[in-house]
Amino acid sequence: AQKITQTQPGMFVQEKEAVTLDCTYDTSDQSYGLFWYKQPSSGEMIFLIYQGSYDEQNATEGRYSLNFQKARKSANLVISASQLGDSAMYFCAMRELPTSGTYKYIFGTGTRLKVLA
Amino acid sequence: DAGVIQSPRHEVTEMGQEVTLRCKPISGHNSLFWYRQTMMRGLELLIYFNNNVPIDDSGMPEDRFSAKMPNASFSTLKIQPSEPRDSAVYFCASSLNPYSNQPQHFGDGTRLSIL
Questions:
Q1: Cα separation of B49 and B33, whole Å?
Q2: Chain centroid to CA A106: how far?
Q3: What is the pLDDT along chain B (115 residues), one digit of tens a residue?
Q4: How many A×B Cβ pairs under 8 Å?
Q5: Dihedral sign, CA of A6, A8, A9, A14?
Q6: B42, B101, B109 ranked by CB distance to A107: nearest
Q7: Alpha carbons B76 and A50: distance in angstroms, whole number
Q8: B70 in reach of chain A (CB within 8 A)
């Protein structure tokens, strides 16, 4: 079973509109962390936002916000007022601590976002 | 501030050759991660170190792969002998504290092509 599922391989959004990128996760741990990264065509990985499993409020960082629904095990990224520079691959990732006692870091398969002018 | 520095940026070599990828983490970060990215398998964690000690190497594909971190400012990932299926982009990342909200900061990656 996939630990991190990003069901949208590709998305289009009109410039200046908001877009939601989906991410669902699977873990039995009580304490875990969720991250979103952006990978532009140039290839680098850029950290966007973090949500801890115990955080009561949804994380926000500028135009990025995380719609965290713990019971549904979803951590969707919302980008408001899309810009052409937001066109990139977006990865959802999870840090968990399974019974083995060693932290695990898992990345989703990514969603490619294209912002249209 | 300097980010994570990886070298080389690109490497093309023939099958059977030894390949060494290098990484300098951000100063003060005590955790270092090696990832491999391919179209087929996405981004995979190969190994990570905490305070220079390997914590989890369960992602290392096979014995041909080895990683070392002799000190806090340097790590290597070695493939010997290399095979065409090792062709990928290899990322190194570092973080201040792997067990908190501190993110991993990635280097620009090494694009490896094995002919």
A1: 6
A2: 12
A3: 689 999 999 999 999 999 999 999 999 998 999 999 998 888 999 999 989 999 889 889 889 999 999 999 999 999 999 999 999 999 999 998 766 778 889 999 999 999 9
A4: 48
A5: negative
A6: B42
A7: 28
A8: no
